[in-house]
Amino acid sequence: MTGKGWLETIHWDDDGLVPVIAQEAATGTILMFAWMNHDALIQTVQTGKAVYWSRSRKKLWHKGEESGHTQKVIDMRIDCDEDVLLLLVEQAGGIACHTGRQSCFYQQFQGDVSTGRWVAVDPVLKDPKQIYQ
Amino acid sequence: MTGKGWLETIHWDDDGLVPVIAQEAATGTILMFAWMNHDALIQTVQTGKAVYWSRSRKKLWHKGEESGHTQKVIDMRIDCDEDVLLLLVEQAGGIACHTGRQSCFYQQFQGDVSTGRWVAVDPVLKDPKQIYQ
After folding, report:
1. Residue pLDDT, tens place only, B89-121
2. What functional role does this protein have (chains A, B) (predicted)?
3. Would an 8 Å CB–CB cutoff place B14 in contact with chain A?
4. Are A82 and A89 in contact (CB under 8 A)?
5. Which of A28, A106, B32, B90 could bridge B104 with an S-S bond, Cβ 3.0-4.6 Å?
6. Edge-to-edge strand ranges of the sheet holding B117-120
7. Residue B131 within a domain
8. What is the DSSP letter of B118?
9. Does a structural domain hold residue A133?
């Protein structure tokens, strides 16, 4: 396989996107989940830093462009179905979430089917007002 | 919030699905990525074992029903956007992938934008022929 065959290997969805899981390489913590299109992935590989596609803003999102919380890519994987990417990253500031937490997955399920609730269990490391000035 | 409010908190996509990341609790390894619908999630909570929605087979998929490689749920998280779930699991047999590997994310990106390729770097722990007899 030559040229950009590695890009064509990926099974892009109907919107031309692929889901991406970002995991902190040093701790194994799952930091966030996002999406990439062709351009985002190419720029990620070219720069060595995570670039996503923002589905809400409909534009490329250079992770950390506002917060400074960039993600340096250490390793990149694709799954057996070739439709999901995994990035192992070095997370600048140790904070991936816009709420100022390490990870976006800070709400834990507690209870059972009838009493279930989502409870924020992880600490805010930095006030978002100080992150997005 | 009472009753099944925790289910309504989730932002289900247009197909009534939510993406799910499964991570091995003991090692931090990301095992796989799948989808759940309402029923799959309810059955996951009720049984304490991962039940997914198979988009290809269009039916509930009790993980491990054929392979024996069930996933006992240790912890369940939702992200800040409330549209992605994370399961921390105990993986029976230490194998999540149908290829007989621990994780589905066994193909590593190597090279750069023009020379890139995906290379299988993780070992097959058990021959799939022995898993699916």
Report:
1. 999 999 999 999 999 999 999 999 999 999 999
2. Catalyzes the hydrolysis of the adenine ring of phosphoribosyl-AMP.
3. no
4. no
5. B32
6. A30-36, A18-24, A85-91, A71-78, B107-110, B117-120
7. no
8. E
9. no
Provide the number of structural domains found in chain B.
Answer: 1
Assign residue B55 the CATH number of its domain: 3.10.20.810
Which residue of chain A is at minimal alpha-carbon distance from B86? A105
CA A57, distance to chain mean position in Å, is 16
CA-nearest residue of chain A to B97? A80
- Other CB atoms within a 10 A radius of the CB of residue B74 amount to 14
Do residues B75 and B88 touch, judged by C-beta distance below 8 A? yes
Kindly determine whether residue B82 and residue A9, on different chains, have CB atoms separated by under 8 Å.
Answer: no
Q: Indicate if the alpha-carbon torsion angle A75, A54, B6, A113 is positive or negative.
A: negative
B31 contact partners, CB below 8 Å, separation of at least 6: B22, B23, B24, B71, B89, B91, B96, B97, B102, B103, B104
d(CA A10, CA B10): 28
pLDDT in tens, A67-103: 999 999 999 999 999 999 999 999 999 999 999 999 9
ipTM of the complex: 0.96
Range of the domain at B70: 6-122
- Taking alpha carbons only, the member of A118, A96, A99, A88 closest to residue A20 is A88
Entry pTM: 0.96
Place of tokens 């390490």: A102
Side chain identity at residue B61, one-letter code: W
In a domain? residue A130: no
Q: What's the maximum distance between 2 C-alpha atoms anywhere in chain A? A: 54
